Structure of Protoheme IX farnesyltransferase:
Amino acid sequence: MSDISASVSRDYEPTFGDYFALLKPRVMSLVVFTALVGLLVAPVSLHPVEAFAAILFIAIGAGASGALNMWYDADIDAVMRRTAKRPVPSGRVEPGEALAIGVGLSGISVVMLALATNLLAAFLLAFTIVFYAVIYTMWLKRSTPQNIVIGGAAGAFPPLIGWVAATGSISVEAVLMFAVIFMWTPPHFWALALFMRSDYDDAGVPMLTVTHGRRATRNHILAYTVLLAPVPVWLALTSVGGPVTLLVAVALNAWFLVGAYKIWRRDEVMAEEDNFKVEKAFFRFSLYYLFAHFGALLVDYALKAGGVV
C-alpha cells in the first residue's frame, strides 16, 4: 500500500457522507439483506430486539471490512476509474482515519454480536472481517488470479452468520445459502473484469483477464455458472425452500446459463464492436440475481408462516 496521505487536502472537512461511503453502503445492503434472510428462515426465532441487534452488528462488521479495504487499497483505487472517487483516494478522508474507523467498528461489531446472540456468530463475523481485510485485500487480491474465487467467501458468510445468530449452530441450509453466494461471485466479477480490464491492468491487479486473457475468463464464467446452477435448486428443496424459491431458482439460473453461454461464444472483436453489450447485460443481471433468490426464500418463509404452504 502506498502512502497517499499527502494527497488529502487539509482545507477539506470530511462530511458524514464521506465517512459513510467508507463503509461501502451498496455492499452493506446486500450483506444486511442476506443476513436477515438467513436469520428469519432459521428454525429458531429470535426476539425482535435481538434480531435487530444481530443484523445491526453484522452490518457494522461489514462496514468495518469496507473501511479497512479502502484504507489498504487506496493506491489501487486511485488509478482505477471505477474507484478513484472513493473517500480515501479522492482525498476526502485520511488513510489513518479509515484505518481507525475500520478497526474500531470491527471490535464493536464482534463484541456486541457476541453479547446480543452467541459466541459462534461473533467468531464467524470476526473471521469474515479478517478474511476480507487481510486474506483477500492484503494478500489474494494482489497475488493470484484466483483472488475473487477464494476471496468470495467473505461475501458469502452473512446468511450463515444470520442463521447461526438465531440457532447457535450450522446446518445444510446455511451452508447452501453460503454456497449460492460463493459460487455466484466469480462469474459476477469476471463479467465486470471483461469490460473493465484496463482498470485492473493499470492498477496491477492480477485479475484473470489480465493474467490469462479474456478468452480464458469467458471459459471460467461458463464453467462456474454451470457449477452454480444446481446449488439454488438444491437450496429450494431443503426445509427453507418452497415453490417460489424453486421457480425462481430454475428460471434465473436458466437465464444465467444462457447469458454465460452467450459470453463464452463471443470473441474480442465481436465484444469490442458492440462495446461489450452482452457482458454488461450479464453483469447487470447478476446484480439482481442474489436479491431475487434470497427474496424468494423470504416469500416462501412468509407463505409457510401464513399457513399457505
Summary: Residues 92 and 111 are 30 Å apart (CA to CA). Residues 4-9 have pLDDT under 50 and may be disordered.
